[in-house]
Amino acid sequence: MKAIVCTQYGPPEVLQLKEVEKPVCRDNEVLIKIYATSVTVSDCLVRSGKVTILLWIPMRIFVGFRRPRNPVLGLELAGEIEATGKDVKLFKKGDQVFAFTGKRFGAYAEYTCLHEDGLCMPQDSIMALKPCNVTCEEAAAVPSRGTLALYFLKKGNIRKGQKVLIYGASGGVGTFAVQLARYFGAEVTGVCSTSNLELVKSLGADKLIDYTKEDFLKRGELYDLVFDAVGKRKSSQLKLQCKNALTPNGKYLSVDDETPKIPVENLISLKELMEAGEIRPVIDRCYPLEQIVEAHRYVESGHKKGNVVITVGQDEKEGEKNGKEWR
Asked: Which pLDDT score is estimated for 225?
């Protein structure tokens, strides 16, 4: 099968398209034919190996010291179950699924195997049936960024009527956070650049702040929850700065706060919300697998809106085509 292989840490060019052995599922695993995956900031961080000194050892333990332990990277996917192990009970051949692959990685390939409930260590994957009203390209953008947004908003105990500010509202996590906060009944303020204001407004933000022209901290408004959906280890500074922008019981949360263990219930909740038309993934660009180096370059440029998707195979049931873009 075709796969993108990363045998060393470095720039996007270390990713190489190669023929590798097709995996065979164990008794408690499913074999997934992958139709789409994604490139996130996390994928670029794993590939480059560039982290702060404090994170160097934890990162190497998680991924590998001299090189990635699993050379086939990729954290999220959408596809179809081609085969199941004899002990699998939750899924069957032909089921269309979307999944977060966890420590196993492996989504940058035509096939991968996942444990049916993600409980087999060191795997921490989650998998659910794909929403019936979205394509595999769209579904592949959800398991990582969408579940993170939902996790942190729940951690912040978001409630109806609260004033919530989403910093980085046009990014992969931020676009989901805006929609979810709106769904929970909050008054949403989205912070983004000038070119992304219309996008964030279309997602349901009640108020917009262009960070290139205005500092939200100087507005004088107070928020019940400030969620930094960008992170990049600048959270401690922003956390100190935004104290005067929080209500007495207000909370500040950042994607940098932790690397959470996401429950599969969060992925199922997102499936149901998409099927109900409450949220939608925002896709900026879609590249074929052969152009994954270009996709990594684009994500690292810091200019993406929402998510960047990689088409791996073609789902004949949906008639998906490589190279499609959403704006």
From this structure: 97
Domain identity same for 105 and 211: no
Residue 294 lies in a domain: yes
Cα(224)–Cα(164) distance, rounded to whole angstroms? 6
Q: Which two tokens stand for residue 248?
A: 């007495």
Q: Which of 247, 249, 322 is nearest to 291 (CA)?
A: 322
- Pairing state between β 246-254 and 223-228: parallel
Beta strands (DSSP E) in the chain are: 2-6, 15-19, 29-39, 76-84, 96-100, 111-115, 126-129, 163-167, 187-192, 207-210, 223-228, 246-254, 283-288, 307-311
Are 59 and 151 part of one and the same domain? no
Burial 25-47 (b: 16+ CB within 10 A, else e): beebbbbbbbbbbbbbbbbbbbb
Number of domains in the chain: 2
pLDDT for 81 beyond 60: yes
How far is the C-alpha of 120 from the C-alpha of 178, rounded, in Å?
A: 33
How far from 14 is each of 65, 193, 287, 293, CA to CA, in Å? 16, 31, 18, 8
Instruction: Tally the C-alpha atoms within 13 A of residue 201's C-alpha that lie toward its C-beta.
Output: 10
- What's the CA gap between 315 and 36, in Å, rounded? 9
Query: Residue 322: pLDDT band by 50, 70, 90 thresholds?
Result: very low
CA distances from 1 to 74, 129, 207, 221 (A): 16, 24, 48, 55
Q: Is residue 262 part of a domain?
A: no
**Strand, helix or coil for residue 119:** coil
**Are the C-beta atoms of 36 and 130 separated by less than 8 Å?**
no
In a domain, 325, yes or no: no
- Angle between helix 145-155 and 172-183 (nearest 10): 50
pLDDT value of position 52: 61
> How far apart are alpha carbons 128 and 173 in whole angstroms?
20
Assess if residue 94 is contained within a domain: yes
In whole angstroms, give the CA distance from residue 252 to residue 273: 25
User: pLDDT for 201-216, tens place per residue?
Assistant: 999 999 999 999 998 8
Residues 164 and 133 occupy one common structural domain: no
